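Retro notes, structure queue

What went well: the backlog is down to a handful. What didn't: a couple of records were mislabeled last round, so from now on we paste the full input next to the output in the thread. Example, using Large-conductance mechanosensitive channel from Parvularcula lutaonensis:
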Amino acid sequence: MGIIDEFKEFAVKGNAVDLAVGIILGGAFSTIVKSLVNDVIMPPIGYIAGGIDFADLYWNPLGERYESLEAAREAGAPVIAYGLFINNVISFLIVAWAVFLLVKGMNSLQRKAEEEPEATPAEPPKEIQLLTEIRDALKSQSN
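Corresponding output:
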């Protein structure tokens, strides 16, 4: 088998397609979480903390103050943007919690599927019954 054939086999297998779908959905989910953190969660926290915008919190080791983090970066100041770090930690915790709940749900469904006994039919299908009758009739004729 040539390398091209091996690649074709790999590329069309379900696992590769599932991985691609997971990556695409992960990117979309990341956008949603980023919006959730920046547009829904952080504004009330900033309001409670006295109108602070966490995304604009930074520390300049040189002691110079600027209007915003963007202005400090444009000026080339060596800033530590700890507010963005706080936002990213909150984003991570939300994603981790969502993935935990997803995996927990999948594990629960898998356990239920494993616990359910396979349904055994009370009697075989009609085709099997008919074939059995034919076999028995042929056996009785040959005796």
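Agreed that this is the format going forward. Reviewer comment attached to the example: The two ends are 55 Å apart (CA to CA).
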